Queue: 2 jobs
Job 1
Amino acid sequence: MTDEPARRLTPEEAAARRSRNMWLAVVILGFMGVVMTITMVRLSEGTHREAEKREAEAANSPLAPRPKQKETEP
Amino acid sequence: MTGAPLGQIESKDMSLQDINAAGAGSISLATPRDYLLLMKPRIIQLVVFTAAAGLLAAPGGIDPVMGVIALLAIALGSGAAGALNMWYDADIDAVMSRTSTRPIPAGRVPRDAALGFGLILSGVSVLIMWMATNTVAAALLALSIVYYAGIYTVWLKRSTPQNIVIGGGAGAFPPVIGWAAVTGGTSLDAWILFAIIFFWTPPHFWALSLLANKEYARAGVPMLPVTHGAQATRHQILAYTVILAVSAALPILTGLGGWIYAVVSSVLAACFMFLAVGVLRSKAGEDDSGPDDRKAAFGLFGFSILYLFALFGAVIVEHGLGLHWPVVGA
């Protein structure tokens, strides 16, 4: 701990610091937004891929409903 | 103008201690705009534009949101490299009138703050690229930052007149990174785009250095006009312009460039060549050069910026708007 009294900021110094802090907050929020956006896109890509995989598996399954054969007249 | 041997060039620089001491013990008056200027926003524009060309020309596709985020990461990476360059070059920036108003030599941003800013931004840009795209694109982005801040700024710039030639590789990475962001790898076409910027850089910078050779000499930067003289530089400008014209024609042969690109690149190459011959025939960079000689060099410098925007603009228009009709193999 130091005994030196804290120096009062000049109005210019205070304004510059306030401006820097405000922009730092904007940048941090922007970074959070970018990370969140990446996560959302990745999740939606994963969901789509999973759905496609399930559809493909279902189509190849022996239990899958077969297309109806045309009824021929006797 | 005769060239001076490397050993004789001594910087009358404001020492780094002076610059560091200038900001010591006071609260910084730096504004966010100063930090934006540290990132060299004009270079970022060109970097993002060329990266977008690589991104759009690459086969396959990328989610548009991820594409925008990849471009943001490239912009941040370029800004990080710019900040690290300004941190290291603060002493020579202070000597040259063109760069003396930059945030560090002007005393607005402390040198250490610029270093911290550059390092944090480097990490964040690579992290975002890796999260949004893939490891190859992130690794190439990291490599391009190291290339510009380490290989060019720290090593080459003050040690060899080939600084711009080899260092040009740093600015040539963006289209390859854009390509890798989409495909997860690189290809011949991506490296052709790299080659175009690589061979564009020397005539672009040497045209500028013909106008500022005395300042470079005063700062102790061994630019070609300082070490080998103006005439040798004007010859080199023309030689690299020819190589550039050949490289810019390669996309037509590989199919990357279609009819629009072929027309645009041919017209641009002819104009570039015309201006380079004009510089060769001028006395730009000589002690007895007149306004017309300086105008010739400045004209080439200005046109070279337009050249790169227009050439990569043609790639963007063809691949981004679906107007790509190949000349070869159609």
Job 2
Amino acid sequence: MLSSADLDTLLLTFKVAAIATTIMLLIGTPLAWWLSRTNSSLKGVINAIVALPLVLPPTVLGFYLLVLMGPTGIIGQFTQWLGIGTLSFTFYGLVLGSVLYSMPFVVQPLQSSFAMISKQSLEAAATLRASPLDSFFTVVMPLAKPGFITAAILGFTHTVGEFGVVMMIGGNIPNKTRVVSVQIYNHVEALEYADAHWLAGCLLLFSFTVLLVLYTQIKTSPMAQPFK
Amino acid sequence: MTVINARFKLNYGDFTLDVDLALPGTGVSVLFGHSGSGKTTLLRCIAGLEQAQQGYLEINGAVWQDSERKIFLSTYKRPLGYVFQEANLFSHLSVLDNLHYGLKRVKNNLGMIKLNQTIDLLGIGHLLARMPSNLSGGERQRVAIARALALNPEILLMDEPLASLDIKRKQEILPYLARLHQQLDIPVIYVTHSQQEVAQLADTLVILEEGCVLASGSLAETQSRLDLPLAQDREAATVWQVIISEHENDYHLTRVEFEGGSLSLAAVDAEIGTMLRVQIYARDVSISLVEPNSTSILNILPAVISQLTEESDSQAVVQLRVGQQLLLAHITSKSLVLLRLKVGISVFVQIKGTSILN
């Protein structure tokens, strides 16, 4: 069975993932929209930066974050100036790391579903008196709904499964930064295979269920059809 | 009388638009030209979907663009209705919600009444609950037209609304457009490359070529100008506005009147007093110096030659005045010489065929 310590790590993990996913959607939506519409020469660079965590070893990202969030790093100095100390080995440090690490999983599905929305549909909205912001909420968002669902689910689940970045910047502090993947590692280190099985099984079930819902939902939704 | 003033200069590398137009505030003005002539770009400039580097646009006294004073009203702030080549309905909204989309954003309480009238006018009452993906191309385009009209716009812009439809669907929509034509009290600017649509809908005709205005004026005037390629075309024709004056039921004929004369047409099922548009192809008109009296052709009218083309090839084009109406005739250059036709002489025209457009 799951111990109360295991349950705490599960709860903490979902809390990090929920907050990180919300932040990623808030930042990722305008970013993906800009990337899907712009002809700017910066597009390639921004795309590459966003996609970087896909190929970069998590420990590398974690290492740089650790340095930057430390007392002498840029982020560390900024947070100290704000009077909130440094972020390394804290819950919010973990959230920041997760946001950077999972961002491509949010931006890319949004970007591709935005790219499918024709310029004509936005022009139609404009001729029907909708301001650009209005048409974003009433035309773009409903049409890109599958993209938003995919982005939220992938961002969330990817954050749940994160290990390398957490080890570098979060450590292993119970109820503060100890997430479920770290807890599984702890159990295995301590040769508590039964406990590891319970947690690993939970995550397996969770991930499979989420993907099942995702793929069946997208397949049957009329929203997944291209704009007519 | 003129309420639309449009001047645009726009450069897209290999394409330049340079127009200066004045259009009337009523009726249908058709922008006609081949693809690449700039007609759609001009319409998009009027809508604000394209911003000409240099431009001035005034509609009903309101300035929508004046590049010298740095005025450019965004599309969504312009009181217009726009119908695209593809219907462009919102696929996530039902037909009714599509119709409401613009209506909700217009501040006037006429909206709902206007919408119900529009739904009737376009015959889409039975489609309201459907999703756009369950409509035929023709139905979609009718919904798109209704969606634009429901805004109660000050001007309606239509960009080849029939071009993406097959002939059958075109025939399905044209009667609705003709009805709009009679019932709308706002100006319509209609882009097309189809001469048939010009004949059926235009009151004012603007011919565009390579981004410039080649000619602009009333349909009758522009159609019959001999210096334009339209008059030389095999399909050259003139359209007359006539009024039904009498039905000759014995012969299945209908008599119609125009300023300065009358014509017999194949029976038209409409009341006396109804306005009709009648198209007469230049190839169906022949010229005689004396009044022909033993001929099977019914429509023989006195006319005066007002313009001639120089006989440069086997065919000559003659512009005539019948009463107040202008008429084109395609005859052979040989006949032109043999009959000694000259500007100003009185002749008789025989009209072999007419077609009714509405």
